[in-house]
Amino acid sequence: MIKKTKYNVAVIGVGVVGIEMLRCVKQRKFPVADLRVFARSAREIEVDGQKYQVEAISPEGFEGIDIALFAGTEGEKGAAVKYAVEAVKRGAVVIDNGADFRMDPRVPLVVPEVNAKDIKKHKGIIANPNCSTIQMVVALNPIHKKVGIKRVIVTTLQASSGAGKSAVEQLWNELDCIVSRHKTPACPAGRQATSQSSVESMMKPQERSMPQQLAFNVFPQIGGFTDDDYTSEEWKLVRETHKIMNDPKIKVSATTVRVPVRTGHSESVYIETKSPLQPESVKKLLAKSPGVILVDDPSKGLYPMPKDVEGRGEVFVGRVRRDPFVKNGLWLWIVSDNLLKGAALNAVQIAEALIQ
């Protein structure tokens, strides 16, 4: 990429991630000469009081674009499958938030706090990792660099916004259905509305985007079930961690759970290190690590929670403690805004590192 003072930027997609990309570009004062917004159809949108003209996407639309930020769509083929090569042909560097290029050996998979140097390997496309992977590797990388990590066992508690705008709407619709029937906690008839069948019967099929009821419920399925009965989301945590941290020997096992939270993924992470590291040393290490904020005083009720990190770009870590039964075992609690650091912000940070 030719060094410039300002760059022509395109944002592709105006769903929840695309909107956050527009916000991040503006809030971080990215050096933009011309900003273009693409989606399936032309229209005008408004974000935080600013209007944007959305153009219908076409290969020709990428003429003159330096950096193309594809918002991506988890669970289905994103626009980048069709248009990334077209953008690259016309001189753009593509940063794709979708899953389509992440495991391509020719495409770097980047979290700037962890492996920014891999950006130099790009051949026109750079992949943004999955949201749950990003926050985990930001927190674990300083520990891995210090003493090495042998094993990771993670359970994620992932917000509805991770599945897109329609999933958030499903959560609100389900809550409305339940609350309308459950005005008084002591009302037995109202309690019936919390059951799967009764809530489903009150909602139209088009109002559902997730496989199970989410309001007043959790379910251990994100993505489809694949090898060894693990979901695609669980395998992303395994394979993406290996690629980003450049260590396929780390044993990673995951369970991914959808929870009735609007925005903010939480993760309960157990690690086994190669060498001993006391919790206080871990806390000091994390407290000075880029992109990490330590919130860890449980006796005062201080630990990261999704309600507190929504709208923040950092990865928050707390509940750091040793396993009393395993010499090198440690627990961490990791929380981050999945739409920001888990998607839009990480992509813009890649762009910032790229132009440096």
Q: What do these coordinates show?
A:
The protein folds into 3 domains: 7-128 and 343-355, Rossmann fold (3-Layer(aba) Sandwich); 133-162 and 219-337, Dihydrodipicolinate Reductase, domain 2 (2-Layer Sandwich); 165-207. Helices cover 32% and strands 23% of the residues. It has helices at 16-27, 79-89, 112-115, 131-147, 165-181, 188-191, 196-201, 232-244, 279-287, 306-309, 340-355; strands at residues 7-12, 32-39, 43-47, 50-56, 67-70, 93-96, 125-127, 149-158, 251-258, 265-273, 292-294, 315-322, 329-336. A 7-stranded mixed sheet has the order 3-4-2-1-5-6-7, with helices on both faces. Strands 9-8-10-13-12-11 form a 6-stranded mixed sheet.
What labels describe this entry?
7-stranded mixed β-sheet, alpha/beta, single chain, Rossmann fold, 32% helix, Dihydrodipicolinate Reductase, domain 2, 23% strand, 356 residues, 6-stranded mixed β-sheet
Give a summary of the structure in a few sentences.
By secondary structure, the protein is an alpha/beta fold. The chain is built from 11 helices and 13 strands.
Order of helical and strand elements:
EHEEEEHEHEHEHHHHEEHEHEEH
Which structural class fits the helix and strand makeup? alpha/beta
**CATH superfamily membership of the largest domain:** Dihydrodipicolinate Reductase, domain 2
Q: Roughly what fraction of the amino acids lie in strands?
A: 15-25%
The number of E-state strands comes to 13
**How many domains, in number, for the residues?**
3
- The number of helical runs is 11
Rg value: 21 Å
| Major β-sheet strand ordering | 3-4-2-1-5-6-7
